[in-house]
Each structure stands twice: as C-alpha cells, then as structure tokens.
Amino acid sequence: MIKAVIIDDERNSRDIIALMLEKYCPEVTVAATASDCAEGIARIREHQPELVFLDLEMPDGTGFDVLLGTREDVSFEAVFVTAFEKKFLHVIRCAEVELILKPIDKESLLQAVSLVRDRIAGNSSKQRYQVLLENFHNLQHASWKLLVQDTNGDTQTIFLPSVECLEVRQENCLFRTDSGQELLAERPFRYYADLFSSLPFYQVNNMQMIQLSNISQIDASHGKVLLKSGMVVEITERRRKDLLSRLQR
Amino acid sequence: MKRIIILMLLLYCYAVGTLAVNPAPDTLIAKDDFAASALDLRPYINSLSDPEGHLTIQQVAHLPFTSSPHYFHNFKKNNGQVNNCWFRLQIKNEGSDSLSAILFAGWHDFMYWYSKAPGDSATLLMQTGLMYDKGGVERWDHYGFNVSVPPGQVRTFYLHIINKSYNENPLMPALFSEQAFARFHNKEQDSYRKEAVIIQVLLGMLLVFFSISIINYIQLPDRSYIYFAIYILGLILFFALRLESKPYQLSFFHRWPMLKYYWDIPGLLFCFYLMYLMFGNTFLNLKERYPFMEQVFTWVSTVVGGLIIVCIYCILMEQYHLPVIIYSYVYFCTLVPFLVVFVALARRSRHHPLVRFFLYGSVCLYLACLGSFLMHIRPLGLLSALGELAAPSMLLIGGVLLQAMFFLAGLSYRNKLVHLERTRTQELLIKQLNKNKELQRKLNEQLEELVKEQTTEILRKKQELEEQRKIQLETEYDKKLTEIELKAIRAQINPHFIFNCLNSIQLFVMQRDYEYAQKYLSDFSYLIRKTLDFSRRNFISLADEITYLNTYLGLEKMRFENRMEYEIVVDPEIATAELEIPAMLLQPYVENAVKHGMTNPQQPIGQLSIHFNQIAADMLECVIADNGIGIARSRSLRTLPKHHQSSGMEISQNRAELLNKMYNTEIHIEIIDLSARNEADSGTVVKILIPQL
Question: Which Pfam families does this one have (chain A) (predicted)?
Fold first, then answer.
C-alpha cells in the first residue's frame, strides 16, 4: 500500500485525484488532503506519506515551497499536478520528477504511479529532489543539472552546460560531454530534443543536437559545424541559416 | 605768264621798228623821239662769259666783248650750271636832250649795273637780284636800271648777271622810256596779280585746312591729323614762298630772299614725299590693315629722308642743279611704282573705305603733276619742265586743293569710322553688359531654382525619412500590439482557468452529476466562444462585456465552491447596449481580483464587486474592488524568485497605453491598494476610466 497526500487549492481537483486513485490505483490510499501549502506541510508531517500529489500554484505558495518545507524530515515521492505549466516544466523534467496535467487522464496517472512505486522500491529519490530544488533556485539553465537514467537502469547526474551534443543511438540517446565522457540514456533522442528545444541547444540534423555555446566555427561552404572539442557535425543549408539567426539573437 | 612775255616781246619787236637803226652794231644811237617806245637791245649788246667768276669791273672794261645772241632767251631756261656773264651796252646820245631811259633785262639772281663815261672808271649804279634784294614790294623797281646819257655824249653800261639757280628767267634786255616802263610795270603787275590772288586764295584755303586739322587733332589725338597738318603747313610755306617770285606782288618772306630758292629747288619736294608717306601710313592704318604696304612706305620714307639730306647738302654747297637732276630721275623712276602702289591700294579699297579717299587725293595730285609736267614740256623742254613741276600752274593748284580736300574728307570719314567704331564698341559693350546682366539674372534664377529644388529635395527626403520612421514606428507598434494582444489573450484566458474548468467538468462527469456538468460545460463553451470572438474585435458593447464577466465569475465561483461572492452593478442611466468599451480590457483585472480575493485568510468569503458608473457625459468609470490581501502583500507573499512575476497586469497597462495611442483616447487606469491607506482595510480597487468617443 502506498500512502498518499493530495495538496491542491481547488476542491474539484482534490476530489478528482482522489476519485481516480480510488478507481484505478487501488494500491494507493489517500491519507489526507490539503488546500494550501501550510496545511500541506502539516499533513505531510502528520501522515509521513510515501507519495504526494502537489499542485504547483496555490494561494500561499507553490508546490516547491511544500517540498522545501518537508525535504529535511520527510522522504516522499512527489507527483506534480497542474492545469497548465510552462515556467517550471524544464526544471521538473530535468530532475525526472513526474508531472501530470489536468484534466488528468488515466494512462498518465497509472504511468506516474507505477514509476513512483518503482522508485519507492529503489529508494533513490533523495538525490533527485536535491537536483530539483537546486535547479528551481537557479532557474538559469547555465548551472542546471540533468538526471539521466542510463541503459543499465542507473541514474546519472550531468552538468547541463558540459553537454556537448546528443546523438540518436537506435532507441536511446547518447550524451557527449566536453570532457569526452559518453553516456547512453534510456530515453529516446526525441524526448530530449523536445525537452531541450527551448534551451540553448540546436538540432543540426535528424541525428544530432548540439549546445550553442560549444560551437567554435561554422563552415558555410561545406555545411559543417566545428565544435570546440574538434568534433565536426553536418548541418543542412536551411538549418544553418536558422542557426545563424538564432546565434545573432 | 610766258605768253604774256612772248606778247610783250612781240610788242617790243614791233616797237623796235620805230627806233632809229644805228650804223655801228655795238653802239646805240639815241634820238629825241625815243621816249615813247621800248627797244630790243639784243643787237647792241655784246657779252662776256665769266664761268670762273673772278673778273672785276676794272678787268672787264679792258676785255673784249663779243656779240653772242645765245645768251638771250625770252623763256625760262635750264642752264644746268651757274651762269655768270657780263653785258656791255654803248649808247651815244645824238639828240638835243639828255637821254633818260630804263633798261630791263629780266629777273635774275644777282644783277650789277655799272656806268662808265669814256676815260672814266666804271661806277656801280645799282645792285639787285632775286637772291640779294631784301626789299619789300619796291624792290621790283630795282630791276629797271636807269640809262641816262647827256646830250651828245657816249656812255658805256655794264650789266653783270649771275644766275646761280639752275633755271634762268627770261633774259631779254630792252630799253624803255620812262612812260613805257611804267606801262610795262603796270601790265606785269596786273598779270602777276592774278597768279598772286590764286595763290593767296589757295593759301587761305590751305590755312583753313590746317586749322581744321589742328583743331581736329586737339579734339581727337590722331597722328594722321598732325601729319596732314604738317603736310598742309609745308604746302602753305611752299605756296607762300611762291609769292616771292611774283613780280610787283606783296610777299611774306622777302627779308629772306634765299628761302624761296630752297623751296623752289625740287630736291626739297622730297620733304612732301616724306610727309605724304607718313600721313598715308598712319591715315590708312597700314600697320594693321596692310602690313606689307606699311613696310614699303617705311622703306620709301627712309630713302626719301636720305635724299633730303643729300639735297640739303648740295644746296649748302650752292650746287643747286644737282638736286634737280636727282629729283628728275627720282620723279621718272617713281612714276610707275606710284601707279603700282595706287593699283595695289585700289584693290584693297573694297575692304578699306579710307583707301578710296587717299587714292582719289593722291591720283588727283599725281595727274595734276603729270599734266602740269606735260604742259611744261612743250615750251620748256624735258628738264626745264621738270624743274618747273613744282611751280604752281592752275592745274597743279587744283590738284593740290582736290587732294587736300579728299584727304580732309578722308580724315573726317576716318573720324566717323572711329566714332562709329566707338559707338559700336559702346553698343557692343552695352550689349555685353546687358548680356552679362541677363546671364547673371539667369544664373541667379538657376541658382535659386537649384536651391529651391535642393531644398524641396531635402524637405522631401526629410519627409520620406519621417514617413519611413513613422512607418517603422507603426510597424513596431503593430508588432508590439500583436505580440501584446496574443500575450493578453493567453493571459486573459488563463490556461489554468481553462484546464481547471475542464478538470471540474471531468469531476462532475465522474461523480455522475450530469446536470451540473452540462451547465458547467455550456457556460465554459460560451466563455471560450466569446473570448475567441472578442479577441478579433477591438470594441464590444458594455452589455456583452457584462454578460461575459458574469459568466466568467459564475465559473470561478463554481471552482471556488462558493467561497466567493460577486456583484456587478451598472448605473441604470447607462445604455449598456450602445456603449462600447475595448474588448478584454477588464478581464485581467477581474481575474486578478478573483485571485486576490481568494487569498485573504481573514476573509473566508471573497467579495468582488464591479461598478459601472457614468461620471461624466463622455466618461465611463469601471471600479473593480475586492477584499483580498492587496497587491503589496500578495507580492510579498510570493516565494517565487523575483523574475517570476505575473505579467497580466503589466500587459493590461501596456494594452491601455496602446489603445490610447491607437484610438487617441484617454483610458486611465488607477490601482489602489486599500491597505496602503488604512492598515485595517484590505483589498484592491482598480479604477478604469474609459472616455466615450
């Protein structure tokens, strides 16, 4: 059984999460609900849940405030539930923390719950939330960290600015860092390409994505981009122009 | 004159018949009846030539005289040398009365008259001569020598004649009674008076010409006038001196008897040549018009100058005949060259009108000279005629006058030309000036036009630039507007709200509360539809806005489980259907009010009110009030990092500014935090003033 707490300022939201958990995830029991941050922290401390469904925006704060207030004494897995999120999406995703969008659909709820269940068994959440909160406080991607689950099932931490490029490796994604390290991630290239699309990265072709700060030279005549490490990647004409205009900005 | 002399001589010859013929050929026997007649003495006179001129009267008295009639001539004769001869006449008075007669032998250079009684020495009775006698008009009487022989006595008379001049006047000795000589004197006087009058008239005319040219020269300093004046002055002198040799006439220069000889010597005619050439040179302006002729004239002038010096030298040496010879040859030599020069000048006359005057004048003189020369040839022979060329025959005088008149006319014409030239130059100058003025004016105009064009161009460019800037600004505005509008729409239809609404609907469905779900869904659909509709429009009616806000607040109230109350109060005077307000202007403030109203721990129920008031005829006021925690505390409550801030309010502020700019209205937004006024109060009041167009 997994003990859960739901924190949301809207009753309708709390009700529907509870209702859906009851209906689709019988192994999860809702121990308590809270309508704001302060109450949420109190309920967590009171019930010591293993899983907390957290609304991001509440009248007296955000879901991060709840995490900050409870990380010292309570260890739990968090699942963010939000109607619409843009600002903190990358922070949450980089830390591989689950996020469910309202209105909640059955599949995402089930997937999140099953993942959390695995994590509770693996007991590897401490580092993840540390990274999440650090990233939340920095908010500048220049010092973000990225949690990556490799093909062996281990979780690795990568300093985001050190990533030189990402490459397609069949169903997985290969990370190269400027120190020459290579890391094969479990998730596909497409997942990271989407995640990084609003960060200072650029997909130069169908197989590769590079970090802009690592570009040392662009060879226009041969359609090549030279990276600081000496690596050469190919770029199509259309994307080269696009890249140039982005670099100018 | 010569004819008169010839007539006179014929008369003498006739008279001779009345004289008693003397048996002794060298002694004239005078009778009592001599008194009334004139007697040709040639048969009674013996002569002695003295070419050396050393003989005195004492010597001559002892020398033998021969009868040599060749000495006598009744016309002018060119001796070609000095003629120095002695004549001896013996008269024996056989009458009862003493003989008192007068001997006249012509006008000669030097004449000495001696009388000698037998056994006695000769005494000089009279000394005279053209070169010697300085007397006035009375000197002409000196040439009649007294012959007085007491009754029954014999007297010997010696006449010494020296003719230094090349031309010798008629030498025809005749004996006159006193009455006869008086008659002769009167006749001569009459005949010479005509010539003298002609010369005087000529002199007068020449003087007039001279005055005219001098006056002209003073008025208009033209060298040709002064040359002409000098030339005329020369002519005046020449003709005035001519008077000197007219017997019994008044003259001007009798005190210097030699003068007339100098001028009479043809060599001095070269002076006229010189002045003539110089005059022609300057008059015709040959230097510019006819440089070759100018050179010819200069050369000839130089040569003539040389000849003049030679002639003067000869005269000084008393070799009067040498200049005559020189002049003769020069005259013959220059006849053809003169013609050539005239022809050459004539060919130029078409381009040079002055040439015509010069030519006519020159040809007049030339022909007059030639004519006069030809006229002289017959009576005088070739050389003598040459010598007499300068003597003023009527023809020559006419020629000189014509020439002077032509020249004067030419000078006048030249003046006219100069005047015309000057006038033309002035006209040209004036024209040029006018042209210059015109040009200047045109240039000024052009410049003005240019400046105008440039100014217009600059203005146009400036305008263009301004327009461009305006367009750029407008584009920027448009861009900003679109951006802000998009942002505003996103902000206004808060995705949170949308998805939370959907979430709520989902819950009702799951709870099987279908009626509520349907109501919720229809309200939500209305709201979304209206939002989409309003986002395309700039203005909507107030009624629409109120309905929209009502629906929105109803949905919010449903979300917040009735923890919120709201009211919309509309001034009944407002015609809501007609009044228009900018679309989606109020929604962000209402949303903010809902948000803040829900966050006040002291107030369990959020109170929200919206008032529409007509505060002036053209001013609509909208007041959105809540009882929330207020803006300041809401901000401080936020734990989000500073760069996380709600942009909804800012967007709406921007939007108001944008609307003001776009529609030139004065929408005014005032946000009042009640807690700032009074600690006890809480809440926010947003006042929006919307002017009616």
Answer: Response_reg
CA-nearest of B2, B100, B656 to B388 is B2
Half-sphere CA count of A2, side-chain side, radius 13 A: 25
How far is the alpha carbon of B561 from chain A, nearest alpha carbon, in Å? 7
Lowest-confidence region among A123-137, B511-525, B650-664: B650-664
Q: What pTM does this model have?
A: 0.46
Q: Measuring CA to CA, which residue among B177, B173, B149 is closest to residue B37?
A: B177
Q: B490 — contact with chain A (CB < 8 Å)?
A: no
Question: Do the chains contact at A12 and B639, CB–CB below 8 Å?
Answer: no
**pLDDT score of B651:** 59
Q: What does each C-alpha distance from B382 to A237, B339, B388 come to in angstroms?
A: 126, 21, 10
Q: A87 in contact with B at a CB cutoff of 8 Å?
A: yes
What is the DSSP track for B399-447?
Answer: HHHHHHHHHHHHHHHHHHHHHHHHHHHHHHHHHHHHHHHHHHHHHHHHH
Verify whether the Cβ–Cβ distance B639 to A65 is below 8 Å.
Answer: yes
User: Do A133 and A210 lie in a common domain?
Assistant: no
Note down the domain range covering A242: 158-248
Specify the fold of B537-691: Heat Shock Protein 90 (3.30.565)
CA of A139, closest CA in chain B: separation in Å? 9
pLDDT in tens, B387-401: 555 555 678 778 888
Which residue is listed with tokens 């707490």? A5
Token readout for B286 is 């040959």
The 10 Å CB-count burial string (b at 16+, else e) for B401-418 is: bbbbbbbbebbeebeeee
Banded pLDDT at B24 (limits 50, 70, 90): very low
Residue A1 is encoded by which pair of tokens?
């059984």
C-alpha atoms less than 13 angstroms from C-alpha of B676 in its C-beta half-sphere: 10
Closest listed residue to residue A143, CA positions, set A155, A157, A127, A156: A157
Least confident of A1-10, B164-173, B402-411, B634-643: B634-643
The answer to whether residues A119 and A77 touch, using CB atoms and an 8 Å cutoff, is: yes
DSSP A82-115: ESS-STTHHHHHHTT-EEEESSP-HHHHHHHHHH
Tokens of B622: 């909208």
* Residue B651 neighbours by CB distance under 10 Å: 21
CB-based contact B507 A87, cutoff 8 Å: no
Residue A123: give its domain's CATH number: 3.40.50.2300
Beta-carbon contacts of B452 under 8 Å, excluding residues fewer than 6 positions away, are none
CATH topology of domain B2-188: Immunoglobulin-like (2.60.40)
Give, for B508, the enclosing helix (H) or strand (E). Answer: helix B495-510
Burial (CB < 10 A; 0-12, 13-18, 19+), residue B692, is middle
Residues 6 or more apart from B473 whose CB is under 8 A from it?
none
Q: Domain boundary at A137, A169, A197, which?
A: A137
Q: Determine the residue type at B387.
A: G
CA distance linking residue B111 with residue B107, whole number of Å: 9
Residue A127 and residue A202 in one domain: no
Task: Spell out the residues 6+ positions from residue A218 whose beta carbon is closer than 8 angstroms to its own.
Answer: A224, A225, A226, A235, A240, A243, A244
- Span B71-86, pLDDT tens digits: 888 877 777 678 889 9
What's the angle, vertex CA A194, arms to CA A190 and CA A199, rounded to 5?
130
pLDDT value at A1 more than 80: yes
Tally of domains in chain A:
2
Closest Cα of chain A to B460: distance in Å? Answer: 35
Query: Taking 80 as the threshold, does the pLDDT of residue B12 lie above it?
Result: no
Q: Which of A163-177, B256-270, B520-534 has the lowest mean pLDDT?
A: B256-270
CA-to-CA distance for B91 and B101, rounded, in angstroms? Answer: 11
Residue B486, exposed/middle/buried by CB under 10 A (0-12, 13-18, 19+)?
exposed
ipTM given for this complex: 0.75
